[in-house]
Write a structure and sequence with these properties.
Blueprint (H helix, E strand, L loop, with lengths): L2 H16 L23 E6 L8 E6 L5 E6 L4 H22 L10 E5 L15 E5 L8 H20 L4 E2 L2 H19 L1 H17 L12 E3 L1 H5 L4 H9 L16 E3 L4 H19 L1 H11 L4 E2 L2 H12 L3 H5 L3
Parallel strand pairs: 3-4, 4-5, 6-9
Antiparallel strand pairs: 1-2, 2-3, 7-8
Helix pairs in contact: 1-5, 1-8, 2-3, 2-4, 3-4, 4-5, 4-8, 5-8, 8-9
Length: about 325
């Protein structure tokens, strides 16, 4: 086992042992179908459906006005009511953890549905809507239970990251969402959090190559897109010498570009490892403050911007932080 993998297992174990929230499950996240649990400081108000849309519940954190909508189809209303307070509790925990200073912000929506082919609306004014599949009997499949307490906290962090249009490097985006999301899951469903940590550590342990986090999500042209724009002589040389690249300029369409999404499972775990290590050295609040600041602007966060931010906040070098990951 590599040094990085051993370190990750130790960090996961320490996080599990240190969390006082592991004592119990959040009641609003485990209520039986048919019940309508409440959570302190969370209001749940039915909303009439818009034209050609589903009915919904507006779930609001009363102290901050932050809210989300919980949509449902005819066979999923009981499921929606049974988990609306849990979803509201997530928003309350997330805004506190993230140090979100906004008021009355709308977060990602969910839709409880029995339609496995449901397609959410994607208009310019539509908030992203995450489907949670409900069984033919109106009950929760295991995957849907996980969607509520594991996937949604993670995805809501992505919504926070996008609040001003920031585009972070993939390892920042996913490491931040996994780190915060798991902390919230630990307060909602400790067993689900342990299962997810075990899965992540297993994914990293099974990986046989470095995660190469700095390249995760980077975009490059397909080789054939370059081949078609060079001479026959250059094509032959490129095939004989993979390191050779003829001079441009080249033009590409979106179909000519591919992102580096290889080794994805290990990369999620390795990016979480970076955030866990920063927390161990500098404290959780310092890491939250850094992530909030680095995602506060608009546009792409370049490696140079990120390196300066890491140096300013933590006194560390970005290259050293990523190391061989």
């Amino acid at each position: 086992m590599s040094r990085n993998r051993s370190r990750l297992l130790v960090l996961f174990a320490a996080a599990t042992l240190a969390s006082p929230a592991l004592a119990r499950q959040e009641p609003s996240c485990s209520a039986p179908l048919g019940e309508r649990p409440q959570a302190a400081g969370i209001s749940i108000v039915p909303e009439a459906p818009g034209a050609d849309d589903l009915p919904s519940l507006r779930v609001t954190v009363e102290a901050t006005g932050h809210f989300m909508r919980v949509f449902f189809d005819e066979g999923s209303e009981r499921a929606a009511w049974s988990r609306a307070a849990c979803l509201g509790r997530q928003l309350d925990l997330l805004t506190a953890a993230l140090g979100d200073p906004r008021r009355d912000a709308e977060w990602f929506s969910v839709v409880f549905t029995q339609d496995a082919d449901y397609i959410p609306p994607r208009g310019p004014d539509d908030k992203e809507r995450w489907p949670i599949l409900i069984g033919a009997d109106g009950g929760f499949p295991d995957m849907s239970r996980r969607m509520v307490v594991v996937t949604m906290p993670h995805e809501q962090v992505h919504d926070f990251q996008k609040r001003s249009g920031a585009i972070p490097p993939r390892w920042v985006s996913e490491g931040h969402a996994t780190w915060v999301g798991l902390a919230i899951t630990e307060q909602l469903d400790p067993a689900a959090a342990r299962t997810d940590r075990d899965r992540l550590s297993g994914d990293l342990a099974r990986s046989t190559v470095p995660a190469n986090l700095a390249q995760w999500g980077s975009v490059r042209p397909r080789p054939e897109a370059i081949m078609r724009q060079v001479s026959a002589e250059d094509r032959a040389r490129m095939q004989a010498d993979p390191s050779y690249m003829p001079s441009g300029p080249f033009s590409f369409t979106s179909a000519d570009l591919i992102g580096d999404e290889s080794n994805m499972l290990a990369r999620y775990a390795a990016s979480l490892e970076v955030f866990e290590e920063l927390e161990a050295r500098h404290g959780a609040r310092a890491v939250h403050d850094w992530a909030r600041e680095v995602t506060a602007g608009s546009g792409r966060i370049t490696p140079d911007i990120l390196a300066e931010s890491v140096s300013t906040h933590f006194g560390e070098r970005l290259d050293d932080l990523l190391g061989d990951r």
